[in-house]
Amino acid sequence: EKGGYDTFMEKEIHDQPHAVRDTLIGRTDARGDLALDELHIDEDELRAVTKIVIVACGTASYAGMVAKYAIEHWTRIPVEVELAHEFRYRDPVIDEHTLVVSISQSGETMDTLMAVRHAKELGAMTVSICNTHGSTIPRESDAVLYTHAGPEIAVASTKAFLAQITASYILGLYLAALRGTSYGQAAAEIMAELQAIPDKIEALLGTMDRVKEIAYYMADSRAVLFLGRHVGYPVAMEGALKLKELAYIHAEGFAAGELKHGPIALIEPGQPVFVIVPSPSSEHGLHGKVVSNIQEIRARGARTLVIAEEGDEDVVPFADVVIRVPRTSPLLAPLLTVVPLQVFALQLSTAKGLDVDQPRNLAKSVTVE
Ligand code: M6R
């Protein structure tokens, strides 16, 4: 059942093109317009949404953070993302015009379920983005948008993460179309870019030898840092989480803009730092700002492992290692940039002789508080 791979995680990483492709299937009508009949929420109610709150835990919460950037940009609806276990014990400002979107692979995560119940009690509409048919969270939600990643067995989430991002983008574009924003009108173009992602992941997976090699010689690392900005920030945190879970190495993900506010003090000669570089086509000059960050940490001795778009030559002078990802539009980049980080954590865990699929102390679904 591991499809010829040594571990479920490796198989699931290679399933990712399918996971994204299958999650996109059936979400458009014959004219190519987004059609989410499966949501069963009245369109007028969705048009009247004034705020979206995304609740989730762990990797699913990072998918939620990625979604925030895209959904706000496309719909102009304010989006908050909150860890479900924090949300459930707060007194959040929520009403019947709030759409609470839970994200969960298993559909059984206790904290996320409790957050959904809390939201319902407060009168919000609830939508579940979930990978497991008939599980508790979608059953208790007003509506569900299933991800079609297929069963995920490895404790460390990989393909579910990509499918969650994909589904939340579909939801965002659908809401944008309902509200008639310019991005809603251009939804077909963005969908076409999404449709091109699976082949790009496939191509990227074919270039991972260098990443595997560096994982092997970094097996003794005591700490690894991850820097990202904009949608690359949640990717940095996801890269760090994968490394903690799988290789038991201290790892932190930071927003690159935060460096000078503290984390740069951690940089000493030899400190490995992954940097997820925004596309040169990103708005607000973010690419140049992150290239400057790489320069700053390199000057202090960091070993820079740079994930950058194909053709981005600006990073080369300051990178110890450049890991290339195919081009896509800036908001879709996490579907590609996270892949080398998953492979890195998997290989490092393997290099240390650890149990990749069943890391210590962890359960696949956390059904207790
Ligand atoms: O089943 P869920 O998506 O609700 O699970 C949420 C988290 O427990 C999960 O993503 C966890 O962080 C993974 N082990 C990450 O690899």
From TrEMBL:
Signal sequence region: none
Task of the protein: Catalyzes the first step in hexosamine metabolism, converting fructose-6P into glucosamine-6P using glutamine as a nitrogen source.
Domain (SIS): residue spans on this chain: 42-181, 214-359
GO BP terms in the entry: carbohydrate metabolic process; fructose 6-phosphate metabolic process; protein N-linked glycosylation; UDP-N-acetylglucosamine metabolic process
One example GO MF annotation: carbohydrate derivative binding
Keywords of the record: Aminotransferase, Cytoplasm, Glutamine amidotransferase, Repeat, Transferase
Locations listed in the record: Cytoplasm
Superkingdom of origin organism: Bacteria
Residues of the full protein shown: 251 to 619 of 619
Reaction it catalyzes: D-fructose 6-phosphate + L-glutamine = D-glucosamine 6-phosphate + L-glutamate
Name assigned to this protein: Glutamine--fructose-6-phosphate aminotransferase [isomerizing]
An annotated GO cellular component: cytosol
Subunit structure: Homodimer.
Catalytic residues identified in the record: K364 (for fru-6p isomerization activity)
Known EC number: 2.6.1.16
